[in-house]
Amino acid sequence: MENLLGLPALGLRSRWFRPSSTTPKMLNLCSNGVRGSTLLLRPTTLVRPHSASIASNLSEGSLVNNPALSRGAASAPTTLTKVPVCRSAEKKNNSNSTIDFLKGIGLDDSLVEKVVKSHPSLLRCSVEKTLIPKIRVLEDFGICGSELISVIASNPSLLTCVSRNNLLAKVDFLKSILGSVENARNAVKKGTWILYVSLTNILQPNFESLKSYGISDERLQKLLVKNPRYLFTNPKWVQERLVRVEQVLGIPRESAMFLSGFKAMASVSKRSLELKFEMFKRYGWSESDVLVLAKRMPMCLLTSEAKLKTIMDFFVSKLGYEIGYLAERPPLLIHSMEGRILPRYAVMQVLQERNLLRRNPSIYTVMSVSESRFLDAYVLPFKDELPELYEAYTGKKLPELILLYRKISNSSLQDSCISSRKEELEDGGGVSLN
Length: 434
Description:
Blueprint: E1 25-29, E2 35-41, H1 54-57, H2 60-65, E3 81-83, H3 89-104, H4 109-118, H5 127-140, H6 145-154, H7 157-160, H8 164-178, H9 181-190, H10 199-212, H11 217-226, H12 235-247, H13 258-267, H14 270-282, H15 287-296, H16 305-318, H17 323-327, H18 337-353, H19 363-368, H20 371-379, H21 387-394, H22 398-409, H23 413-426
Antiparallel strand pairs: 1-2, 2-3
Helix pairs in contact: 5-8, 8-9, 9-11, 10-12, 12-13, 18-22, 21-22
């Protein structure tokens, strides 16, 4: 039997070096019971481990003793190098079997190296007793091929830290609460760590807490599929956020916005929320205005200060709208200025200047309708008459839209904005497209 250096395990006679009476020697016992010796070589001894294959490079012994791959290793020894003379053939064979198994399920060489380096305990796992049963659970769940490779590569802990029975129990629970295998599989795709979280200590208590606040099973299913992170955290933390939705935002649990309020509370700390309230107040919002906004669309509380400033400058300073108008119409705070608000407003001003509008819709209606409905109502009907308008809007060329408006009107956009706002107020807020 030879060690990693290709030297005899017991005799240690080689022309490269000969142990002398001054050579430090340590005795150890190999896993197969054979008494062997381990030499501490002087730093002048040149050692070149064999690296002809991934199996030898990623074997457990090399991972443990290679400072470049070992987890937690700070640097290579500077004085003495420990070279194991006796090595267990059984461990080496098991390492090779694990690597071959990972390759067999589709992982390429680079992924195998990444997985083994991050979880070297994989090399000690039994392929037949540990790895194959867990892979079968995932395959029966419908995670196969490239999806299986992605799951294992992103979360190798499923193969080392979760038992087969535990993994199966979590899969069955997800299928039962989500109503179908497809929904459960989609939730796992959102984050494979779902299968790693405790079922009894985390997931089930959080489900019960949300249900006690009136959240229906259907909405919980959607939450788990789209935003699973809200359910896979400390139950005490979840309970505190649920209480704050009622106490801080004033949203009753019977409200359709309660779940949205919970997501908002789960996204900011208590101190961050206080800073958000202060930010709104700096721009002229009263506390009652902020609470009206929160009850209608809680996620608007996460609006950045830069965006809030831009919105306020446009709707309040330039168009003359009041803060109360914005508080009661929170979607105006979440639309993109350059992607939606300014291009649509410029289109409406061009049409109004050319007297092409048969009715005067409200600014809220114009900004809230879907893109397809806006095109059908305000762009496509005038494609032949105003081809430059169609090209500028569909190409999202905002500067061209503004230049086109100024060319037609020979006036400033801001003056027209204010005058349009006055007309809208006189007409009772405009006519809806619905």
